[in-house]
Amino acid sequence: MKMKKCVVILAVVSISLLFLSGSVRAQTKVYTWKIQSTWAAGAFEHVNPKDLVARLEEMAGGRLKIELLPGGAIVPPFEVLDAVHKGIVDAGHGWPGYWVGKHPAMGLFSTAGGGTFGMEREDFMSWVYLGGGLELYNELIQKELKYDVISFPTAGDPPEPLGWFKKPIKSVAEFKGIKFRAAGMAAEVFKEMGMSVVTLPGGEIVPALERGVIDGSEYHSPSADMSIGLHNVRKIYMMPSVHQPTGFMDLMINRKKWDELPADLKAIVKTACMADALYFALKQIDQNSKDLETMVTKHGVNVVQTPNEIIVEMLKAWDKVAERKAKENPFFAKVLASQKGWAGRVVPFRSVYHPPSELITEYYWKGVNPYKVTKP
Predict the structure, then answer these.
(1) 125 assigned to some structural domain
(2) Fewer beta carbons below 10 Å: N end or C end of the chain?
């Protein structure tokens, strides 16, 4: 009898050890990803996926190994989303504005004029994470486009400057006939205002300016603009603008590769993306202010304040584009309504709750702000 009990106990222990061994092996399995971004290797935006990859590998404790490639390494930048869907790459890093040609609602996550409805980056990202924006974005990818891709934002965008010009633009009338690089839904806003618009990836903008293919360009932010050399071919840098007040960059993951991950690694990916969104926003504040100062003091860039007339007319142009797209596309209308509902609460709240930043800036820095001295 004792011998039978010992045999049973040993059997139970063996089975337990077998399951434990399998569990340990599952926990130590290494998952490998190849990610291509839409950005050139030297572009400031490429810093975002670099930081993210480092964070993911550290948090995963060696269980996630990632090779990050710049735009064009495997497929052209504008084909990254398709490459992720087809499994040509395991994941991609990009910006929804590059996919506006696939669906107009992509513009509402990247180049929605006015924010939309006055939302700044913090307001917009609160809609993304708490107001249903992320769910709508993945619905757009998976149900509207039928792509086997899941997305997580990795950076909220700051407002883009109006752009780089040969001479200051004093009125909307002077927009007419200018050959201008723009992307996403912003391209349609500029067209509405009379510009001749060309959409190019970041790496092609400076050569196009040098050859005279375009007269001027917007791109992203002082650091991003400087990283691709815009300050070397144009010296008039106009800001601010509302053609792209905010939006996000994102990590796009092939659905099969995502489904392979255990629950804890999925949680790590989600958390790392959220952490990187905050970190990159802080890095942009630091680096953009440094790089704008460098362009002005060392490269002869002339910062010109955009006239209010142009900003108001740009909002009107956006309203026309948005109304037209909402009538044409039910999903666009659905996302726009969601944004308007969120903005209707958070924007009025901010307007009364936050102190007037321009008034405080003038109080402390009037007369010593190097960017307020030149106007058209």
Answers:
(1) yes
(2) N
In the chain, how many domains are there? 1
Averages of pLDDT over each 10 residues, the chain, 376 residues: 49 44 60 96 93 96 97 96 98 95 95 90 96 98 98 95 94 90 90 89 91 93 94 96 94 98 98 96 95 95 94 94 96 98 97 92 82 59
The residue count of the chain comes to 376
Give the tokens for residue 272.
């790392």
pLDDT at 7: 47
Task: Identify the domain containing residue 89 by its residue range.
Answer: 29-156+246-286
Whether residue 93 is contained in a domain is answered as: yes
List helix spans (H) across 193-307. 205-211, 222-227, 230-233, 255-260, 263-299
CATH classification at residue 264:
3.40.190.170
Alpha helices (runs of H) in 142-249, residue ranges in sequence order: 186-192, 205-211, 222-227, 230-233
| Apex 299 CA angle, 296 and 305, nearest 5 | 35
Give dist(CA 286, CA 293) in Å, integer.
11
Residue 47 pLDDT: 95
Q: What is the largest CA-CA distance in the chain?
A: 100
Which pLDDT does position 8 carry in this prediction? 45
Other C-beta atoms within 10 Å of 7: how many? 10
Instruction: Decide if 169 is inside a domain.
Output: no
Would residue 15 count as lying in a domain? no
The CA distances from residue 354 to 22, 359, 361, in Å, are 55, 12, 14
d(CA 308, CA 305): 9
Long-range pairs for 207-213 at CB < 8 Å and ≥24 separation? 208/181, 209/164, 209/233, 209/234, 213/179
pTM for the complete prediction?
Answer: 0.87
**Sign (positive or negative) of CA dihedral 144, 100, 241, 252:** positive
CA-nearest of 257, 254, 256, 258 to 83 is 254
Which residues lie across from 217 on neighbouring strands? 164, 181
Axis-axis angle for helices 121-130, 330-353 (nearest 10): 130
Q: Where are the beta strands (DSSP E) in 54-143?
A: 64-69, 91-94
Q: Is-contact 220 45, C-beta < 8 A? A: yes
Structure tokens at 274: 């959220």
